[in-house]
Amino acid sequence: MKRFSARRIAFLCTAAVAAAALLIAAGVLAWQQVRTSEYHRQIELGDKYYGEGNYAAALLAYQAALDISDEEEEAYVGLVRVYTAQGNTAMANALLERGMQKTPGRLLSLLKIDLDAAGQTAQDGGGEAAGGTDGKTDAVPVLDSRLLERFASTDFDGYRLKEGIESSAVQGGSCDVRAAGIAATLHFFPTSENHNVVDPNTDRPYSRLIPNAVTLDDISRLFGGAQTVTYEELESMRLAGLARETDAEHGDVVSFTAFGCRVRIACGADGSVSAGAWNEIVPTGENAGSAASLTGRILDATTAGGVAHAEMQFASSSGEVVAETESDGYGSFTVDLNGGDYLVTVSCPGYITETFECYVSEYQSVTERSFTISPALAEGEVRIVLEWGSYPADLDSRLRGEMDGGEIVTVSYREKQAYAGGELAAELDVDDIDGYGPETTTIYDLNGVYEFVVVDFRATGGLSQSGAVVKVYMPGQDAPTVIEVCSGLEYGWHVFRLDHGELEVTNRAAATSPGAVK
User: Fold this and answer.
1) pLDDT tens digits along 232-266
2) Which of 233, 285, 412, 485 has the smallest number of CB atoms closer than 10 Å to its CB?
3) Contact in structure between 271 and 265 (CB atoms under 8 Å)
4) Alpha carbons 433 and 122: distance in angstroms, whole number
5) Contact at 8 Å (CB) between 254 and 267?
6) Do 349 and 363 share a structural domain?
């Protein structure tokens, strides 16, 4: 047996202890890095929600950051600002006192001075202390009319081509189909008018059949992402036939008719509906007609303001021009049209002429739709315009570039301008937080490699169902490159890579968590 001296054994023991210490230190460092990353993610969330006036969500985010670390001032500052905005000066002062004991942050001292001054002013009768009402706690409920219209008029083949079919199950003469793109189940079953709904050659519904009913996985999808909708909010939407009833199977139910569908949703005793509620949407074809009108605005991509005196030309699917109009001094327009699909060409001096696809509803007398056009590009510029539907309410544009000089530039709602070599390299022109867009970014310096990502800021999971479109305006091109959102996304959408002015469309998921997408 090999023998070791006492010195050798001591050396080996010391080495083993040192190695273990290194492993422990590495583990602690990795853990600290994760905590630091999550801390900054929560601060970022809090800042965003505070900027929106969504104080309830901001409080949760800042408190989560404080739970991670109570020795950094950002979380205290965020909480104090929210409580101050809500008029809760007692909580604001309590947080300030706690924060000033934990960290000697300069901002906390300044906030303390401001709070003391505001309190003194209120005591002196010189005005109210800083405050206000509670911020919104949820997305504002907005009925997604286009979604209902799609349910009212889309047949199985339309779902198959547009949304993709996840699965189908035949039982008896009925068939349930999972539509991947809208996270819904389509129900096809025999009726007195139509005895056969399943094609025996495919074990799927016949291609031209409209579902008898649709069930959404998450009914908030129908209300612009609002997790709860009160009965009073439903009443404010002026929904036809809105009523509360009792269903033997589903209990309390609210029902209404809108955009060619009869909608039924399980509700609470007070008539409010929530995200996971049972629901049934039945296409009825009611209220379909031919006479309608289209109204909206022509928007400037770089300001989101109206474009005055833009000329509009409406062509039918056959290419025949059926109507023309011009926006007024505020960019608004109204034109009488029959229900159906149109190609709309918008032109105005100083802007890039564009053609849009537009659907005018048969189920309502007035369809609202706005069109965003871009000012003409200066030499060496690239413009990026993000547009989407009502849900999710907040999609964010994120641009990151590595310049030839080695500088890293980033543009987002937090850093709206980025400089390289002392010159403006890129900027966020418009930040939209309540749906539809436009959200616009302009690149001025093409001497680098950029990547563009879209983030579902609230992590709703609805990015693939958002209808998001990114338009990239390139130098020397008459029309933008249009990139439609792909399927299978969670929080991030990697849209394209721009290498010294050469566009590479990637259109894939950004493999990252919502807070980490930069």
Assistant:
1) 989 988 888 999 999 899 999 999 998 889 999 99
2) 285
3) no
4) 34
5) yes
6) yes
